[in-house]
Amino acid sequence: MESSGRDFEARFVDFPDGMTEYVIGDEMDQARRCLRVDDYSGSEDGLPTDSWVLTLVAPGYGSQTLTRILDIPAGRTLTVVSRGTLFRGSVDDPAGFAAVATDWPIRSARDYPQVGLAVLATDCSATCVDANGVRWRSRRLAYDGVVLGDLEDGILHIEAEDYDPRTILLSIDDGHIVHYYKPLPI
Predict the structure, then answer these.
(1) DSSP H or E stretch at residue 150
(2) What predicted TM-score, i.e. pTM, was given to this entire model?
(3) In the prediction, which pLDDT does 177 show?
(4) Of 45, 103, 133, 152, which one has the fewest beta carbons inside 10 Å?
């Protein structure tokens, strides 16, 4: 997947294939994903000036976790979810990538390019990430699942999938609950 408007490209690959490799995460964890980064900064012939592989090591949370490159306009910073764990770092310092803590494994993510951020959902809460890093973390919103919805006029619509389902409206600025309501029984 090419990162839009950037001078580097990142995509998931199966193996490092002999390229320079940077391993990020706890070696004892079992879930690994490799991400190839081709750096085009300063290239005049359209060929990468540098290429390397980032091997992201995360706990093995299972098959219901997310693996995805997030499209956040952040210069030369790359934000990736690998096997439910959020990683962030600069393509200029591959060894400096680090995991960002969340309360539970990340199950889904949605980019909101109109405001330059992404929101990540666990089973219980949401975390907002922008060009500067984590913007906010919500309090517990659900027990069994958080479904990210549309963003309208600075309000993020979220569905809480619980024994008592409800719609929650969060401020995109700080993650605070603006309003919530339950659907009427039919």
Answers:
(1) strand 146-152
(2) 0.84
(3) 95
(4) 45
